[in-house]
Every structure is written in structure tokens, then in C-alpha cells.
Amino acid sequence: MAQVIQDKIIDENLKWSQINQDVIRSMQAPGKAYWITFAVCVAMFLTAVAAEIYQYKVGMGAAGLNNPHMWDMYIATFVFWIGMSHAGTLLSAILHIIHAQWRKPIYRFAEAMTTFSLMTAGFFPMIHLGRVWNLYWVLPYVSDRGIWPNFRSPLVWDAFAISTYLSASALFLVIGMIPDLAILRDHTKGWRKKFYGILALGWRGDDRQWRNFRKTYMLMACFLIPLAISVHSIVSSDFAMSIMPGWHVTTFPPYFVAGALYSGCAAIMTLFICLRYFFHMEEYMTKNIMEKTTKLTFAIAMVWTYLNLIEFASTWYGHNIYDKEVLISKATGPYAVVFWTMIICGSVVPFTLCFQKLRRHMPTMFVVSLLLQLGMYVERWMIVAPTLSQAHQPHQWDVLWAPVVQWAIVFGSFGWFALLFLVFVKLFPSVSMYEVKELTFHLQHEAEEEKWLADQEKHATPEGAREKPVTGRPGLEGA
Amino acid sequence: MSKMKSVKIDRRSFLKMLGWGGAGTALAGCDLPTTVTLEEGKEEVVSYLMPEEYVIPGIGVWYASTCLQCDAGCGLHGRVREGRVLKLEGNPDSPINHGKTCMMGQAGVQAHYNPDRVTSPMLRKNGTLQAVSWDEALSELNGRLGAVSGDRFAMVTGTVSGHQAVLVSALMEQMGSSNHFAHETINARVWRQVCEDMLGDPMPRLRLDKAQVILSFGADFLGTWLSPVHMATEYAKFRSAPRGMLVQIEPKMTLTGGNADLWLPARPGTEGALALGIANFVIERGWNKVNVTPNVRRALAEYDLPKVEEITGIPVSKIKRIASLLSERSPALVLAGASAAGFEDGYESVAAAMLLNIIVGAVGETIEASAQFPEAALLARQGSTADLIKFAKGLENKAFDVVLFANTNPVYTAPEALGLEKGLAEVGFKVAMTQFPDETAMLADLVLPLASPLEDWGTHVAAYQAGGDPVISVQQPLMEPIHKDVRGFGDVMLGLLKARNKEFEQFADYYAYLKTAMLNMPGLADKDNKNDAAWNNLLQKGLLSAKPAKGKLSIKAHTVEVAGYQHSKEYPLHLVPSARLGLWDGRHANIPWLQEAPDQIAKVVWDSWAELHPKTAHELGVKNGDIIRVSSASGSIETQVYIHKGVHPDVVAVPMGQGHTAYGRYAKNRGANPLKVLNPITDKKTGELATHATRVKVSKVPRKNILVKMGGSETQMGRPLVRTVSADQFRRTEGEG
Amino acid sequence: MSFKNILENFSKYRRGAEEGGHHEYEHRWGMAIDLNLCIGCNACSTACYAENNLAVVGKDKFEKGQAMHWMRIERYWDDADAGRDFPEQGALFLPMLCQQCGAATCEPVCPVAATYHTPDGLNAQVYNRCIGSRYCNNNCPFRVRYFNFWSYYESSWPEPLNMQLNPDLSVRDKGVMEKCTFCVQRIRTAKDKAQRENRAIVDGEFQTACAQACPTGAIVFGDTMDPNSRVTKLWQEHEVERGPYTSKKPKQNAELRGYRIFEELNVDPSIMYLERVRETEV
Q: CB-based burial of residue A133 (10 Å sphere; 0-12 exposed, 13-18 middle, 19+ buried)?
């Protein structure tokens, strides 16, 4: 089954019915391994809940924050999860409108990842607030006291940006699943049938529905791309709009977006390999697709490295002693270990992606993807903490290593994310069935076309070409 | 508030306690907050359960009183709202503090509201202290006092002055005892003796404001010496154009040292030699304004500069510079404080400084005759450690049967070597009159809870009178006692006196006595009108000035002999038990604000520390926060290391104030008490404890501690936060004055 | 405030902030702190604890850097001391409190506008409105905002210490940012009194707790809009003007001692410091 097809994205000869079967198989009643993982994730999540309840009860002091370090890992983790969410948009929306075919088998879980990482990220501003019960004050609700949020504050922009992005990406995910949900509706029994029936919104697969579907999908994709870029630009403005050395940086918006895409791609690699391994999706998540993903990751890694260099250079050649000292302290001070971890994981490790052998070696790629994510996590932390440790006022300089409560909550957020993902893969198709079918159809067609062209050259009849094969429209034939 | 409600206020007594007798006593008037709207002829007030007519909710009224946080005698204004005192400020009318306060004064309210006060009399029964009624306590005490005769009775107090001093003397007289010991660890006893001997005035007025250069041998006048707030106000004048220059010589940087233009550590105990060297050089150059006798001249000649350098460790060039400054920037003023006086030859060292004053012509210029308060009986009985040592001697000889402690805690402040605890165990009956469960009270057989200074009546005559007419400062209660079962010091003393002499029965209480006494004071504005109006005026103002008994300075310069420096192999370092503005001698260790306020120089909070010079620390191989054991011949203490350059390499400086074994939740079991390990060395002349003379050795203890201090960076990291200008530039822009 | 108001006045509001304030000021409270006189004795800091109900956090929390001293005395050693055996020129003391900046960086970043500029020229902190995002202190170059990381009421004021609490202002609970207010309760009281008596506030009629306690009188507090106040005169004497850094003309007499910390960040602090004087001859 798992034969390697050197230059094809997937095997175009996959039967549509087999695609349905394979995907539905992945959604069958979970096994022991699943439940163990599930239990671990629940435990991680509950640890975080316990830590948060404690922190809520006694105050933010439980997180070990202090005067210079008003922010720490919560904010870094928030930025990390927001960044992670960008990969789904990149794969499903950007690559969609530029017609990159290889995205098709993998974009669904990437989109899910977007939504879930946003759902995780959304917790952090709340966890981080001193008086979380007043969170809604950030929103401009109508109040007879006539009090509005402060529209100049990047945190208010954050609230808008993230809630918009979360709803848009969730919508995008659900819309993109409609044809697949219809397939599931037709293939399942009992509560699942009802469930998918409601979600499929009466999809029958007729021409009008397909036309509307494609228009909507394209429209959403076009809407989502600027949204994704603006969201991380706005998150970067949390830092860039301040006057703190090391935060007040003009290149932060593109830097944050690049970092976001970077960590997102790395996360896709990780999940790709997990799904491929656990659900035996080798036929869909092929090494070719992996290779394309890694190449994209490498390109983004280089953009990120470049933007890093720009930031360092402009700080170094600038005349702001505050900025300069923060940079020097990052590289040589108490946080140097973290800094060099970031540089090595973020800018050196990606060079493994230059080698085809390594790119096609899944265990290596798994480790590499984790390292890249580690690099990107510490990058976020390196933005938040060292500036606070060594800002303008030397009297308030300090070094802070987060205590256990912060770690527990950050750790638990990974559990929560994985939990959502585990539920997702059992409830929804993590591979887009209809788009894979489209893909095989296109590939078949391409193969035929190539064959025809080859024949043409072989025979080279001056009378002209034979008739091209007729291309059809993929439908729901398999359903 | 709940406490307030539970106290049933007898209106008459409350009025009396507040010194209420009409609107007159309320000071600067009222400050109305916004919660109360007052329109013309109509008041709309917040509901309040049956307020007394003089309590207007939301309105703060200021009353004058006196600060007792140290014995400088600063005047206070206390803000009272809804029957509670909330905030203390300086009394602007007081010539001592001119409306200013120090951090200890500000924290007076926390001593008053302290959660660890003694709230009822306690009698030792079967080995433990048990709460008893005042009747029982006093009958026990009177019984014991009746059974003791003459000098077998001793009383130990801190510095007492005013009418409390009168009561103490009266009690001693009634008991037929001469054993009243006034004990203060932070004192200027040696300075007083030197001034008395060489100038004929024990407490001459120091004109910091007139001085152009001050050379101070360890006199921490901004922090702990004589009258810190007054000195600070004078310092402000000294530093304004034309700006005076401050040179501080001391083994450990004090607050004053931190503000010096030139700070130099001489080898501990060699300040006298340095002063003589400077004097010698001044005379050699003919810069002296006053000629000395040939005797003195001959004695001085021994101190040529290379020799002085060898003794003190201060380079000749610096000594020359200091000497020339003293003459260039006339008038000069030379001071000598604890680190000069705290040696066996401490008196001589201070005398050497005074000799320098005489030579450079400071006497008469920057040192003026004091204006003493005319009523001798009211003058301060100033505390000293000599009295403590005398008391300890008495204990050793089993000379006392009954000892009465009042507002003093010698069990904490006395060095272990004096054997106070052991001696006290032999005393039949020990009574502690105190506000707090301190170490002395824990050893006592009877504890009498005193009212706090903000609940009590009293009068105070500061030992250091600030100039102008001398004043007696009135202490009036700013509120009803928080705890029902406490009594004022004066009331208790008066009670004891009444039991012995019918004469005192004419006074219902100490308030009545005080009022009568004050209204009969000469100098009260309206002599014929000895009525409530005069009394009210007095209370409103908070002080009364009198025609001074003006002294005259008569210079008696004499030769001074200081010992050279002795090195010791076994005990290579000197222990400096440094005094802190804040915890003082340890009496304020139970005040959370003062524990949380960082030390002015080290910035350490909530603990003790041992200051070591980087060189010394390097030799010992210790880092910040390491625990070291400081051992003298008399014992050892353990505390954390704090490394900085503001100490002499031969010195380990441990601040006083911590290391309490009792004294409430904030003070107990926190840090170490350097006073405990002092050797019982005394100044030869005055008998004062030579606080700085103890030699110690330091050893590392394999434990670490996190040094808790304020501030991240020790320097400004090149950032222009505190900018400095040269004195020349200052003179150019802000003139010579 | 309504949407209409925002739309109509936003440009004025925005531009005003850039120009160092967007108010028609009634007063602009300010200070002059003479570092030549400051002796670093902590009287101001303790007075602040007494006046403003500041929590005592205890040793452990102090170690964590969670102390609440609105007015803190920073002590620095000279950079030159590194090459000397002893700090021969003494220490450098800096009383650091909220600078009540005219163009305060804490104000624009608060998501709920809990910190805003009053017509008195103060950076007010509305405790009730604060949600504890802590962005304001992150954006404060002076780091003079203090966050209630814990609930201190029980631990800091055991009975009867709570009887000392100043009823003119609140005790802040956990999750709220707080900072120096220039003793706004005293300002209010004085303003009300002046209004009742139908007069303007007289300079020196009241002071902040720190200025009142300061034994050397290093802290001078007053209204920088009152041409006759002591503080205005000091500012003028030392040629320090309000307003953003970028529009500043150089001082006529460059040797004058007045300066404002971090003025180059364009925050327009309301506190003028006077440089510490050092003898060069020793």
C-alpha cells in the first residue's frame, strides 16, 4: 500500500470509495492508545485548572510576577498560540487561492488547529488579568454609564482582532467541511447521522450548491488572509506600541507574522506525522506532501531569520542605549541560554530541511518540528521577559524565572489543545474527503494529459492533435 | 472601628483625655472631605451611630503632641478623625523639628496601633505570666515596694524628662533609693562629657547652618545623633548656597556618610589620632585661629603626618587636604559621634575632635552656648550605657530586691557579657512597665501595660535644645486608649506615690497634676489667668518656651592622649554595631513600616546583615547572602553577608535592631543582635560601654540565604537619573548665598 | 462620552496627547525635588505608607519584588567607585515616585481607560475600573506603578493596625494597579475648602505627605500653573518648561540644575529634579 510515488502528491488511482472508507475508519471508536492519550490530556488540563483556581483565589502573586515583570509566560504563551493559528490560514486560504494542490489532503486538520489554538490562546489574556471577572470591560458594550474601553490601547485591538479571527476561522472550518459532513451523514447511523445531518445543512451536492459553496469558500479565504496578517500585527503592537527597549521595534508586525507562520508550519509537521502514523494515513499524507511542507517551512524560517537580523542590526547600529543594552543582555545576560536556544532552534535547525533524505525521514522530521516549535516558543518568551528585566530604570532590574503555577498553566494549555484535537479527529474528518477526490481527479487528468502529450510527440502527426480527454467535474459520485 | 464601638466612652473622661475645653484645642481647623457636603446653615452628614458631639464624621482635626519615638523631643500634630489618630506630622511651631518628621516619627501610629501590645497587667504565677486586674497587680506591687528598703529598690528607665522625670525622682525619694538608672544605647554621653569638660556646657548648640565645612568623626547627625530631624533641617541650610562641605570619617558608612562630599574610613578607633594629626598640621601651617598652650602644642607635635598615616591608614595627602579645608572654608565645625567615642579611649578621641574645634576657631562661631530650660527638675535625665553597666554591677552584687523597669528593654540591649539575665534571676521582684511584650517584660514578675505615647499625658524637655528660647513640649493623648486596661506612665507613678505620701492625693490623676504643674510654670503667657484658656492655648500650641538659663562657653583645652592601633591575630576584625534611623536600638523592630523600609545605605529589609568590604569578603571567600558567624570573646551571632565598599576592610558592621527573642510578631526571631556579643569594655573616663571596641573573628557557616534588598542595579548603568554638578558650577549659578 | 463625541473630537484628542496633554487644565500639580538636599532618610516613603494605606508585604514578597512603596528612595553608587577602594563621594539618593507625566505612556495602553489624565494634570488611577492587565506599568519607563499581586488586607493590617487606615482613600484589593496620586485626597480636600470659601487655592495651603515630612525640605509641591507658587518659581529659575522634549529650546544658562528624568522619551514629567552637587576639590 505505502508505495512511494516519487513525483506525485498522492496516488491518483485511489478509489473514491476507498477514500471515504479510509477517512471514516479514522473516526471509528477509539482504541486504548487514544484513551490513554486522552486521559493524559485531561490530566494536564486539570492541572492547569487547579493552578488557575489557586491563582484566582490568592492573586497574581501566585504566578511569581513582580514589579518589573508584570508580564511573563502567560503573554508569551498567548503569542505562541496565536502564532500557531496562522498555519491553518496559510494552508487553507493562501494556498487555496494560489491553487497549490498539495494542500488538499492536509488543510483540514491545519484549519482545525487554527481554531483550537485560538481557543487556547483566548484563555491567556483572561488567566493573565488581575481581575478576570471584569474582562468584559474591554468590549465596547453599551452602558448607561457611558464608559467605553480605551480605543487607543492595543489590548482592546487584541480583543477585537482575536474574537473576529476566531469566529471567522471557525466559520471557515465549518463551511469547508459541509460536503464531507454530507458524506458522513450518508455513511453513519444513530446520533452521528443526526449530528452530521444538522451540520451538513441539507447538502445534496447539486450544481447550485457547489457553485455557492465555492464562491463562499473563496470569499472566506480572501477575507481570512488579511485578517490573519492583521491579527498578528495587532498582537505585535502590544509590544511595538509601547516605549520599552526591545519592544518598540518597527519590524515587529512582519516579524510576528513570519514567526507565526513559522511556528504554525512546524506544528503542521508535527500533527502531520502524528496523524500519518496513528491513523495510517500514509496514502494521503504522503512524503511528497511532507516535503512540500518542509520546503515552505524552510522558506519561512529564512524570512524569520532575516527579520531577526534586521532587528538586531537596526538596534546595534542605532543610538538607543536602552535598546542596545537589552540586546546585549539577551545574548550575554542571565537569559543567554534561552536566547541561543532560540537562535539555534529557529535559524540553525531548519537547515536540516535542506536535505531530501532528512525531509523524507519521518522520525527526524518529527524531532525537527518539535525543535522548531521550541525555538518559536522561547522566541516569544525572549520578547516578553528580557525587556522587562532590563528596561529604562536600572533600580528595577531583576531576573525572573517563572514558578510552578505559570508552568502548570502553560503546560495545561497544551493538554487543552490536544484534547480539542483528539475530540476533533474522532468527530470530524481530519482529511478533506471531497478535496482529495478532486485532487485524484485532477491528477488522473494530468496523467492522461501527459500521456497524450507523450503520444503526440511519439507519433508527431502533422495533421494535428487528437482530441484531448474530456475533463469532468468532480462530484459526489463516491458518496 | 469595632474596637472603638466596644469601648464605652465616658464623655467627661474623653473630653479630658482629648484636652477638650472648647474649640480652642483643635488646631489648624478642619479638613472636610468630599463625602460631606456642607452648605450654608445646613449640614448633611453620613449616618453614624450616636457620635459624640465633638466627633464630626469625615472631619479630621489636628491636635498637638510630642513624639516619643526617640528622645529628640520633636513636636507633633496628629490628625484625629472619628476618634482615631490617623497620621502624624511635625509641629511647625516646634523649634526642634519645624514641622518635619523622620521615618520613626511617621511610624508612631504603628507603635500605637501595634497588634502586639500588652493589654492587661500580668503577674507571674507558678512560673508563667497570667493576666490579672490592676487592683491585684498594684496591691502586689505596693506590697513588694513596702517590704523593700532604700537602695535595695532600683528603677531602670530610658531617657526621662519633664514631669515624668519629676515623678521618677519623687518615687526614688519616697523609696529612699538613689538607684535610678537611665539607659539608652544610642546616646551622646561621651560627647556631652567632653563638651562639659572642655567648653563648660554639656550640650552646646551646633550651628550647622553657619558652618562652611563640617568634619565629622562618625557623628551620624542625619540619622541617629543628638536630634536627627533638627540636624537635617539645619543640614538643608548648610547645603544651600553658600554650600558647605561635609567630610565624614567613619569605619562604616552611615546615612550622614552617604551624604558626605568626602567619605573616608579610618582604621577603627584611630579617629582621635587623625584629629590630632590634623590639629598638628593646622598649627604647623599657622592656620589656627586660637593659640594653644605649649603643653598641648608639645603633645600635638608627636602626631606628624606620616605617623598619623601609619596609625589611621589615611594617606597624608588626604589629611593635608582636610586640614586645609578646615581653614579655607571657615567657619568649620568638627563633630564626633559613636564610632569615635565607642572605644576605651573614646573620651580622648572625642576630646581630640573638640580640640580641633577650638584650634580652628569653631567655638563661638559654629558652637554656641546652649539655652537650657530653666527648671532643673524638668531637664532630661539622659540615658547612657554607663548606667546600664552600673545596674549590671548592682545585680552582680545582689544589691536589689525590687527592680522597676519603665519603657526600657535592657535585657535586649545589654551585652551578654554583662550577665544581666543571670543577675535578674536573683532579684526578688521585677516589674516591667511597658507597652510591648519585650524581652525584659518576659523576664519580669509583674508586667504593667502602659498607654502608648499617643494615649498618654506628659511633658518633655529635649536634651538638645535647638536654639532660640528653650521649650517644654506637651504630650497630649490623641485618642482614647485602644485597650481598656492600659494606664498612663504618669498615672501609675502617681498611684505608687499616693500609696506612700498623702500629699500626692490632691491630684486625681496625672492629668490634674500636669495641668496644675504647667499652669504654675513661670513663663506661661498669662500668669494671672491660670485658667482653662491658658491651658487650652498651651495644648493647642503643643509647647511652651521659657526664658533660657543661658550658659557661657569657657574653653579649657587640655592635652589628649589617644592609644595607638593594636592589631590582633585571634580577632582580626572590629565589630561595628551600627545604629539605624528606623529600628533605632531595636525598639522599633515591631513596627512593620520600619521593617519594610529599606536601610538607607544597604537597602536590606526585614533582617540583619553583616557588611563586609569586598576585600575582606574575598579573603573569607563569602558572597552576598552567605551566612557567617561573627564571634567575639563574649559570644557569637550568625547573619548574612552584605558586601559593599562603604566599610573599612578591618570591620564587620552589623546593624542594631534585630535579633529579638520576643517583642511581637514583627520582631521576634528575626536577624541577629550585635549588642549581645560586645565585650564589656568601657570608656575609661565616662564608664560608657565601648560599643565599637569589640574585636571579632568571622567564619563561614555552610548555609545560604537570599539577601532581601530593594533595588536591582547598584549603579545607574550610565543613565542620567541622578545627575551631578560640580560645586563650582553650583556657586556660579546659585551664588554664594 | 458618546460615539458622536469620539468621532467629532478624536483628532483633537489624539493630537492633544501628542502635544503633551489634551486638557484644559485647571491646575497642573508638580514638584521640584532638590537632590542636593535629599539625604535619603526614608521619611517621605514612610509618610507615604501612613497617608496612602500602603500595604506592608513582608520579607518573602519583598524578595519577590512585590513591595508597594509608591515613594521609594533609590540608592546608587557612582560608576567611578568601581575603580576606588571606597565610595569616597558617598551615595546617590533618588526619591522616585510617579512623575505624573503630561504625556504619560501608561494612559494610552490601558484597555479600559482606568488610568487617565485629570484636569489637574494628574495621572489618575481608577481602582474600581482597573482590570489588572498590568500594561501600564510595562509601559512606564520609571516603573513606579505597583500591582496588588496578593490581597494584603488581612496580612498587612491585623487588628488594631487597621484602625490607622486613612478613610479618605480606599484599601486596594488584589488584581488592581496602584501608584502615587500626589495625595489626591489632600488635593480634593483643599479644593473643596477653597470652593466653600470661594477663593483660589493658596500655594502651600497643603502639601503631599512626602513633601510635608521631608526634613530637609528637598521636596517642593505645588501648582505649576500658579505663577506665584514656589514650585513654578523653581521651575522658571532653572529654566525647565513643561511640554514635549522635541519642541524644547536649549536652556539659556546650560549650567542650571533643573532637569527631568527620561525627558528624551517625550513623556513630559511633572517632577523637576535639581542635580546633586558634588565637590570637585576633594
A: exposed
Model confidence over B421-474: pLDDT tens digits? Answer: 999 998 989 999 999 999 999 999 999 999 999 999 999 999 998 877 888 999
Reported as a single tens digit per residue, the pLDDT across B379-424 is 899 999 999 999 999 999 999 999 999 999 999 999 999 999 999 9
In the prediction, which pLDDT does C12 show? 66
Question: Would you state the pLDDT for residue B49?
Answer: 58
Q: How many domains does chain A have?
A: 1
- CA A376 to the chain's CA centroid: 13
Which amino acid is located at B680 in the chain? P
| Dist CA B643 CA B73 (whole Å) | 35
Q: How far is CA C238 from the centre of its chain?
A: 20
Query: Chain A: residue nearest C127 by CA?
Result: A131
What range does the domain containing C32 cover? 24-274
C-alpha cell at B463: 536634651
Please give the angle made by the CA atoms of B169, B174 and B175, to the nearest 5 degrees: 95
Does A194 touch chain B if contact means CB atoms closer than 8 Å?
Answer: no
Residues of A in contact with C2 (CB under 8 A): 146
Q: Which residues 431-490 of B are in CB contact (within 8 Å) with C? A: 482
Q: pLDDT digits over C44-85, tens only?
A: 999 999 999 999 999 999 999 999 999 999 999 988 888 888
User: Looking at CA atoms only, how far is residue A322 from chain B in angstroms?
Assistant: 9
> Which pLDDT band, with edges at 50, 70 and 90, does A309 fall under?
very high
Number of domains in chain C: 1
Taking the C-alpha atoms of residue B709 and residue B601, their distance in angstroms, rounded to an integer, is 11
Higher-pLDDT residue of B17 and A91 is A91
Write out the residue range of the structural domain in which residue A173 sits: 16-441
Give the mean pLDDT of A273-295.
84
* Rounded CA separation B480/B543 (Å): 21
pLDDT for A87 equals: 78
CATH number at residue C233: 3.30.70.20
B557-586 exposure pattern, b = at least 16 Cβ within 10 A, e = fewer: bebbebbebeeeeebebbbbbbbbbbbbbb
Confidence at residue B375, expressed as pLDDT on a 0 to 100 scale: 83
Write down the domain spans for chain B: 189-370, 573-704
- Chain A CB contacts of B712 under 8 Å are 68, 394-398
Pairing relationship of beta strands B573-578 and B626-632 according to DSSP bridges: unpaired
CATH architecture of B573-704: Beta Barrel (2.40)
What residues are paired with B77 via a beta bridge? B64, B89
Binding partners of B (≥3 Cβ pairs within 8 A): A, C
Taking an 8 Å cut-off on Cβ atoms, the answer to whether C108 and A149 are in contact is no
Task: Give the start-end residues of each E strand in B270-374.
Answer: 332-336, 367-368, 371-372
Residue pair C155/C58 in contact (Cβ under 8 Å)? The answer is: yes
- Give the distance, in angstroms, between the CA of residue B154 and the centroid of all CA atoms in the same chain: 23
Going by pLDDT thresholds of 50, 70 and 90, the confidence category of residue B530 is low
Residue-by-residue DSSP string for B399-458: --SEEEEES--HHHHS-GGG-HHHHHHT-SEEEEEESS--HHHHH-SEEEEBPPTTT--E
For residue A92, give the CATH number of its domain.
Answer: 1.20.1630.10
Q: Residue C281 falls within a domain, yes or no? A: no
**A396:B712 CB<8 A:** yes
Q: Is residue A449 part of a domain?
A: no
In the structure, what pLDDT confidence band is assigned to residue A339 with cuts at 50, 70 and 90? very high
CATH architecture of the domain formed by B189-370: 3-Layer(aba) Sandwich (3.40)
Compute the CA torsion angle B67, B68, B74, B77 (nearest 10 deg). 10
ipTM of this complex prediction, to 2 decimal places: 0.92
pLDDT of residue C84: 87
Decide if A241 is inside a domain. Answer: yes
Q: Which residues from chain B sit within 8 angstroms of residue C189, using beta carbons?
A: 31-34
